[in-house]
Amino acid sequence: MKSEKHHLYVGVFGRRNAGKSSVVNLLAGQDVAIVSAMPGTTTDPVRKRMELFGVGAVTLIDTAGVDDEGVLGQLRTAKSRQIVEEIDVAIVVMTDNRISVFEERLMASFREGGIPFFVLHNKADREKATAETRALIMGKYAAPVIDFVALPAADRDVAVRTVGEALQAVLPSSVARRPSLLEGLMQAGDIVLLVTPIDSEAPEGRLILPQVQTIRDVLDNHGVAVVVRETEVAAFLQSASKPPALVVTDSQLFGSIEKMIPRSIPLTGFSILLARYKGDFERYLKGTPAISRLRTGDRVLIMESCTHQNTCEDIGRVKIPTLLRKFIGHPLEIEILPGLSPLPDEVSVYSLVIQCGACMITARQLHNRLRPFIAAGVPVTNYGMAIAYMQGIYDRAVACIL
Ligand SMILES: Nc1nc2c(ncn2[C@@H]2O[C@H](COP(=O)(O)OP(=O)(O)OP(=O)(O)O)[C@@H](O)[C@H]2O)c(=O)[nH]1
Ligand SMILES: [Mg+2]
Question: Which domains does the chain have, with CATH numbers?
Fold first, then answer.
């Protein structure tokens, strides 16, 4: 059973020409509302249903500018105000650090109405939000201010993620719904088999975070989590009264586990689930096959994103370089970027970036670290997906969670 979805209504408000329709179009990935340099372009509310990362199904509602003039203008602004009654959450679009009486009124009415909201400071390509603007809005309305660029050329993935995270941050937890790690992969009552190595790299007396998160997720979804070491997999499969609906393994065990699990049972890795959950999964999907295109002398950057996990350190510094050299069969230059150290100045010199599972950093941190490489056209992947690829089970490990 999936957790209950709550369809959210998100109103987009602001003065004329602030870029409300541009914001909606960018998020929707299509032209749902007319954009023009002429103030007052949007007259009637425009609704667009879409999926927002981390939030689920939403209906975005583009509105007419709240500063519209004349009799018609007043009718339009009245309509915009009516929309306020429909929505769960609002986005206030403003520009140029201009907090006029219109923005003040809007924000005050949301506060009074108990509607959570945040401010998109749009046209940040021209002018960014100042510290004073942020402090004023935070102090008076407890709302975050986010710089934004809604031009059609802006990166839609970044925009969707930014808005998704901002919505999650302002929504009360009763409304916000975190997606499930196992979304769409299991149903209530299913058995999920989790294969977890307990070797010298396993943390003393504990399990690593992705394993713990997955167990929790199985429980949230009313499933049966069976946690075994690789040595107990065969015995479990023989004795189980019904086969697992899904097997999730540590990526280092892919090679051996894949032979034990019948092809009829979906098999994937903890780090692949995590990539789908908070990584740049689409980019990883595109980037992983670049491993096969590596040539002699190509530079590969392995990015660690934590400092204290022995397991990850060994995978990134020893296992992946070894596997990679063996898989490619010719010399490569492999560099390690430890912890959260600054990114190299020159990112375009790399032919591939292999990012760790990123279990210890937030989705935003992860995204920000990968962004320069993505912008420079460097393929990116992560530890688990790269390992699956080099062990020849990538298609199987990825196919079942697409
Ligand atoms: N430089 C810059 N221009 C932007 C940005 N976003 C929107 N614009 C431009 O601002 C103008 C107004 O954009 P719209 O999206 O139509 O603004 P709106 O708030 O919907 O306007 P109304 O129809 O009056 O409600 C257009 O010329 C857009 O191209 C941005 O981030 N940067
Ligand atoms: Mg508009």
Answer: 8-170 (3.40.50.300), 191-273 (3.40.50.11420), 281-395 (3.40.50.11410)
The protein residue whose alpha carbon is closest to atom 13 in ligand 1 is 19
Span 331-383, pLDDT tens digits: 999 999 987 788 899 999 999 999 988 877 766 578 778 889 999 999 999 99
**167 near 53, Cβ under 8 Å?**
no
**Probe target for ligand 1 pocket from 12, 13, 17, 98, with the most ligand atoms within 8 Å of CB:** 17
The DSSP-derived string for 294-330 is: --TT-EEEEE---SS-HHHHHIIIIIHHHHHHHHH-S
Ligand 2 centre distance from Cα of residue 67 (Å): 12
Q: What pTM does this model have?
A: 0.56
Distance between CA 124 and CA 41 in Å, rounded?
21
Tell me how far apart the terminal alpha carbons of the chain are, to the nearest angstrom: 18
- Whole-angstrom Cα distance, residue 59 to residue 289? 36
